[in-house]
Specification:
The protein is mainly α. Helices cover 74% and strands 0% of the residues. It is built from 26 helices and no strands. Helix 10 runs parallel beside helix 13, helix 13 (301-331) runs parallel beside helix 17 and helix 16 runs antiparallel to helix 17. It comes from Hypsibius exemplaris (Freshwater tardigrade).
Length: 746
C-alpha cells in the first residue's frame, strides 16, 4: 500500500472498525502521546530521562489493561450500526472497500508505521538529552541573575521615593517664594507708578517756564502737568501726605503755564481786529492748541471765561461790521428798475409796449423765469460770493435773489465754520453751544433780518421772492448735512419775512385778474398779453415750486390764479359777437398758455399742463363743430338726432324721410371735396401757429370721417334697408384716402 494514504487513515482509524481493531489503534495512539509527553527532561542526565520515559510507558500499559475492561460493558455496541454507517461515508474507507483491501491488513500496516515513527522519535530525543540538560542549567542561572536585578531595582525604588519627597518639599518652598516675589513686584509697580505720577521732574519745570507755548515740547509737558495736578488733587482727598509735598511746586507751575497760555490766546484773538487779517487762519492756529483752553478750564475757570468773553466780543463785532456793510454794498448792485405794485398779471398796459416785446434796461423780468432759475442749482448756491467793487467796475446789476444768495451763503459758510469751531475749541455741545453761538452772531442776524425786511416790504417781484424762499430751503438742507443746527432759528425767521410777502404779491396778481375789465382792452383773435404774462408767471412758479418742499399756500394761490384766468379768458372772448371768433380767441390763448408751460416745465410737471391741455382740447372740439356746421350741418343734425333715438332704445322713431336723407347724401357727395379745401384754407388763415393750425385741421377732418361712418351705421338700420339712396353713399375707405392727402400740410 502507498504510505501517503496512511496519515489520512490514521486520523479516522478509530471509526468504523471492529472492536478489537479499534482498541489496538487507540492503545497505539495513547502510547505515542505518552511517549511524546515524556520528552520533557526532569532529571540531570540523559539516562535519567530515558528511565522516566520507560516508566511513563509502563503506566500507559496499565491504562491499556484498564481500558480492556470496557468490553465488559455491552452498552458500547448500542449505536455501532449508526457509527458504521457514518464511517462508511468516509472517503478513505470507501476507497479501501472499493479496491477490495483487507481492513485488518491495513490496520496492521498502520500500527507498524506508528511503531517505526515512535522509535525514531525516541532516538532523536536521546540525542538531544545533553542540550536539554544544558538549557536547564542556563535557565537556573538566569533565575539567579534576575533575582539579583530584582534586589537592585527594589533599592532604586526606595531611593526614588526619598527623592520624590524632597522634590515636593522644594516645590512648596518655590511656590512660597513665587508668591512673595509677586507681592513685592506688585508693590514695586504700584509704588513706582505712584511716584512717577506725583513727582515733578526738573525737565518739566524747565520746559514749562522757559519754552514758548507754541513748541511741541511745551504742549507735551502741559499735558503731563495737567495729569499730575489732577492726580495730586485725587491723592489729597485721600489724605496722602506725599501729595502735600509737591502741591506748592505744581501750583507755581500751573500759575506760570496759565499766564503764558492766557497771553498767547488773547494775542491771537486781538489779531482778528487787524485790517486785512484772515481770521479763519488765526482760528486754525488756535485749533492746533485747543488743549490750552481745556487746561484753563480745568485749572483757572475765571481766566478761561476771560478768554471766551474776549473771543465772543471780538468776533461778534467783526461779523456785525462785515455783514452790515456787505449788505449795504450789495444793495447798490440791484437792478435800478424794480417791479412796482402795478406790475401785475392783470394790469392793463395797452398804452405801453407789451412786456413781452421789449424790456427796460437793467430790469429783471417780472413774469418770466428766464435764466433766473439756475440760481437753485448746487453749483450756483455754493458758488463764490459777489465782490462789490469788482461788480461795480464791470457795471453789473443783479436781481434781488442773486444778492440774497450771496449774503446768505456768506452767512452759512462763516456761521457753520464758527459753530464747528465753538464745539471743537470751547468743548461745548447742545444748548450751551447754541447759546455761545447766539452771543457771537445774535446782533449780526438781527441786523440782517431788519435789512431783509426793508427790502422785502417794497418788493413786488413774486419770482424773486419765491426763489429766495427756495434758496433758504436749500441752505437748511446744507446745514443739516453739516450738522449745524444753530442757524435753523434764523432761517425760520427769514421765511417768516419772505412767505407772507410772496402770498401778498401772488394774491395781488389773482385780484388783478379778477378785477380786469375786458371792455377796456384791445382784443384781437391772437393771444392777449395778459395771457402771456399769466402763462410765464404760472410756469415759473410751478418750476420753482417743484425744486423744493411742497408749499401748500403757493399751490393754492396758483390754483386760484388759474380759475381767475379761465374766467378772464371767457370774459374777453365774450367781447366777440360771433361764436366762432370766441372759440378762435380761446384756442389761441389756451394754446399760448400750454406752449409756454410745455417749454419751461419738465415731464414731472405734466399734472399742471394736463388741465390746460384738456380745456384746449374741448375748445378745439367746439371750434371743429362750428367749422363743419356750414358745410355738413344737416347731416350732423340728422346723425345726432338719430343716435339719440337709438341710445334711448327707440330706433323706430327715426324719421323715415327718404327725400331728406337723399338730399343729405347727394349734398355731401357733391361738396365734400370742396368743403375740405375750404376748411383747410380757413384753418391756415385763422391760426398763425402752424403747428396748432394743422392739429385743428386734422381734428376737423377726423371728425368728418367719424360723422360719415356714423351715418353709414344709422342707414344700416332695418327701417332704411329699402332706401335706394343707400347705394349712393360714398365708400368710407375712399373718403379716408382723400383725407390722408391733407397730411402733407401737417
Amino acid at each position: 500500500m502507498d504510505t501517503q494514504s496512511k496519515p489520512g487513515l490514521e486520523v479516522d482509524s478509530s471509526v468504523g472498525l471492529s472492536g478489537g481493531t479499534q482498541l489496538k489503534m487507540n492503545h497505539r495512539i495513547n502510547n505515542n502521546n505518552n511517549n511524546n509527553n515524556s520528552r520533557i527532561p526532569t532529571s540531570s542526565s540523559g539516562l535519567d530521562l530515558i528511565e522516566e520515559s520507560q516508566d511513563a510507558a509502563s503506566a500507559a500499559d496499565a491504562k491499556k489493561i484498564a481500558s480492556l475492561k470496557l468490553f465488559d460493558d455491552l452498552s458500547i455496541f448500542d449505536d455501532v450500526d449508526h457509527k458504521m454507517k457514518e464511517n462508511l461515508d468516509n472517503e478513505l474507507v470507501k476507497t479501501a472497500l472499493d479496491q477490495g483491501i483487507d481492513i485488518r491488513e491495513y490496520v496492521a500496516d498502520v500500527e507498524a508505521e506508528l511503531r517505526r515513527v515512535e522509535d525514531f522519535a525516541l532516538t532523536d530525543y536521546i540525542k538531544e538529552a545533553t542540550n536539554i540538560a544544558s538549557l536547564h542549567y542556563q535557565i537556573k542561572s538566569c533565575d539567579n541573575a534576575l533575582e539579583v536585578i530584582e534586589d537592585m531595582l527594589q533599592s532604586f525604588r526606595t531611593n526614588l521615593g526619598n527623592i520624590s519627597t524632597e522634590i515636593r518639599w522644594l516645590q512648596t518652598q518655590s511656590a512660597n517664594m513665587s508668591v512673595k516675589l509677586k507681592n513685592r513686584q506688585a508693590v514695586r509697580s504700584e509704588l513706582s507708578q505712584y511716584i512717577n505720577e506725583l513727582a515733578v521732574p526738573e525737565f518739566m519745570i524747565r520746559q514749562i517756564v522757559e519754552c514758548p507755548v507754541t513748541d511741541q515740547v511745551f504742549v507735551e509737558q502741559l499735558h503731563e502737568l495737567n495729569h499730575k495736578i489732577g492726580f495730586a488733587k485725587q491723592q489729597a482727598f485721600q489724605d496722602a501726605r506725599s501729595a502735600h509735598d509737591v502741591r506748592d511746586v505744581l501750583l507755581k507751575l500751573r500759575v506760570k503755564a496759565t499766564a503764558k497760555i492766557r497771553d498767547y490766546l488773547l494775542q491771537k484773538i486781538q489779531q482778528f481786529k487787524k485790517p486785512m487779517t484772515n481770521y479763519q487762519m488765526a482760528q486754525n492756529s488756535m485749533l492746533k492748541f485747543r488743549f490750552f483752553y481745556e487746561f484753563l478750564l480745568n485749572s483757572e475757570r475765571e481766566i478761561a471765561k476771560e478768554v471766551r468773553d474776549s473771543y465772543v466780543d471780538t468776533t461778534s463785532k467783526i461779523f456785525y461790521s462785515y455783514f452790515k456793510h456787505y449788505w449795504t454794498r450789495l444793495a447798490k448792485l440791484q437792478f435800478d428798475d424794480l417791479p412796482l405794485k402795478d406790475d401785475l398779471v392783470g394790469t392793463d398796459e395797452s398804452s405801453k409796449k407789451s412786456f413781452f416785446t421789449t424790456q427796460p434796461k437793467m430790469k429783471a423780468p417780472v413774469f418770466s423765469l428766464g435764466e433766473r432759475g439756475v440760481i437753485l442749482q448746487q453749483a450756483h448756491l455754493e458758488g463764490p460770493v459777489l465782490v462789490e467793487h469788482t461788480a461795480s467796475q464791470a457795471n453789473q446789476k443783479f436781481p434781488f435773489e442773486v444778492l440774497f444768495r450771496s449774503i446768505q451763503w456768506a452767512l452759512v459758510d462763516n456761521a457753520s465754520r464758527e459753530y464747528l469751531f465753538i464745539i471743537d475749541f470751547f468743548m461745548m455741545s447742545g444748548q450751551a453751544a447754541q447759546d455761545l453761538f447766539t452771543q457771537i452772531w445774535g446782533k449780526t442776524m438781527l441786523v440782517m433780518l431788519k435789512q431783509l425786511e426793508e427790502f422785502v416790504s417794497v418788493s413786488y417781484d413774486s419770482i424773486g421772492l419765491f426763489l429766495c424762499i427756495q434758496i433758504v430751503e436749500k441752505y437748511k438742507e446744507t446745514l443739516a448735512k453739516r450738522d449745524v443746527p444753530a442757524l435753523q432759528p434764523y432761517f425760520e425767521a427769514v421765511q417768516q419775512i419772505l412767505s407772507p410777502r410772496l402770498d401778498f404779491v401772488l394774491d395781488l396778481n389773482v385780484q388783478s385778474l379778477r378785477n380786469a375789465d375786458p371792455s377796456g382792452f384791445k382784443i384781437t383773435s391772437q393771444p392777449h398779453y395778459i395771457t402771456r404774462r399769466y402763462a410765464e408767471l404760472v410756469a415759473a412758479m410751478i418750476v420753482i415750486k417743484n425744486q423744493g418742499p411742497d408749499n401748500a399756500r403757493v399751490t393754492s394761490l396758483i390754483k386760484q390764479m388759474q380759475l381767475e384766468m379761465d374766467s378772464l379768458v371767457m370774459r374777453m372772448a365774450a367781447e366777440f359777437g360771433d361764436r366762432k371768433f370766441q372759440l378762435i380767441f380761446m384756442i389761441n390763448n389756451y394754446d399760448a398758455i400750454w406752449s409756454v408751460m410745455q417749454e419751461h416745465m419738465q415731464q414731472e410737471d405734466s399734472r399742471d399742463t394736463e388741465a390746460v391741455k384738456a380745456v384746449l382740447g374741448q375748445r378745439i372740439n367746439d371750434f371743429v363743430e362750428q367749422l363743419l356746421s356750414p358745410y355738413f350741418g344737416p347731416m350732423i343734425e340728422f346723425i345726432k338726432h338719430s343716435e339719440v333715438a337709438v341710445d334711448r332704445g327707440q330706433p323706430e322713431t327715426v324719421k323715415l324721410d327718404e327725400k331728406k336723407i337723399g338730399s343729405i347724401i347727394r349734398g355731401f357727395n357733391a361738396n365734400w371735396k370742396k368743403a375740405m379745401d375750404d376748411i383747410n384754407a380757413e384753418v391756415m388763415r385763422t391760426f398763425n401757429n402752424f403747428k396748432q393750425g394743422t392739429n385743428i385741421l386734422q381734428t376737423a377732418l377726423t371728425h368728418l370721417v367719424q360723422y360719415y361712418h356714423r351715418l353709414h351705421k344709422i342707414l344700416s338700420l332695418p327701417q332704411f334697408k329699402n332706401f335706394a339712396v343707400r347705394n349712393e353713399l360714398i365708400n368710407l375707405h375712399h373718403l379716408m384716402v382723400e383725407v390722408k392727402k391733407y397730411k402733407t400740410s401737417f
